[in-house]
């Protein structure tokens, strides 16, 4: 059983707002949102203000106790085994037996405490704050959770919050929001309809062929990775051979037909939540079964792909196997260097700081020697230096290279493998190695990659991303990794002194 940190009043991507001093623009926007929402819910202005302030104080304390992003991504920091009795002594003000009983969970022998400071801090907050503050906090969280479904009166404070946090002052239409609820709560049934309608078997076949070639490109390159020791290289080869992937949609879909849906939106949402909770509870204590394409970021309707180190495999949802990422009618360069590169990116996550801590069957066991780790870190150091030299917004250069190096390393691996797989594909299908619009397949490969990252957003959103996200801004991803590939220099005849030139000693070739 895993014990995570709880959610706070703002989504995780915006939790850095809780570090902003009182009176700062974003924390003020959040405070106003709380006060106005509470007033709509029926509290008078004085009570709404005191509830908002207490809630922010509690969330500040809990946020400060969470692991910072770099540590939260480090399996060695989040894998803290405890017995129930041990954990209970660390949390004197939380009655774990009672909580587990309330959840109808059996008592586990061991728990994995993923946030080592969060729960002890929660225990302290519970003891130190007046009980009325805790009651108010819980009330407020329930109101916020259901406010989008209760009345459009709550739209106004939400718009104010969005303006403050992401600079956007319109909400999606009612229709779009209704669709989002259905996608969010009935992910699998909607995915099933979508897959049946938009995913012909021929597309699935082509995508599977491409993934196979990318894996093969990785296998071909493995013996030439000079920085790896022989023992680790052979373990890496084993792990790569064992790596599995699933394309499109699951073999079995979750059956939601027993969920009671009524014209009452809130009660329907509660029924769905109860159904999901019960499914999760039924799994406790039973052997682990991987459910494919059934979490919020790998549903077939989601444009994403994700490697899971605990199964040494990854899922490629239908929605990413669609234009502009993948188009059965498109030329190979575009498909390989967009979707193929994303899949290569995912594969290399099995062979980085996360992947090295899990063996080929997904058990937590570091299979790298300290020497291999040091060699990889040295290569990564060059990527960190490269990223630290970028300024995404005036004054945003806060040395984010270390926070984002995992993703930057994966992007580099992804486009490298995609390009190698493209060359292999073109050797197998020479009739496809054609110049289009005056561009060779190599040129189109790198252009397709760069175009893939086109993005538009507000400075506020970019600022939060730079501060917290493990992924660098898209503008960086579009071009920075290409500067490490010899093939890129060749494709465009780039020479020393050109803006994209990176001195050879600063280039990285890891995978
Ligand atoms: Zn990644």
From TrEMBL:
Residues 304-508 form the Peptidase M13 C-terminal domain. Its cofactor is Zn(2+). Keywords: Hydrolase, Metal-binding, Metalloprotease, Protease, Zinc. The keyword Zinc applies. PROSITE patterns: NEPRILYSIN. Residues 6-250 form the Peptidase M13 N-terminal domain. Gene3D superfamilies: Collagenase (Catalytic Domain) (3.40.390.10), Neutral endopeptidase , domain2 (1.10.1380.10). InterPro entries: MetalloPept_cat_dom_sf, Peptidase_M13, Peptidase_M13_C, Peptidase_M13_dom_2, Peptidase_M13_N. The keyword Hydrolase applies. Belongs to the peptidase M13 family. This is M13 family metallopeptidase. It comes from Sphingomonas daechungensis.
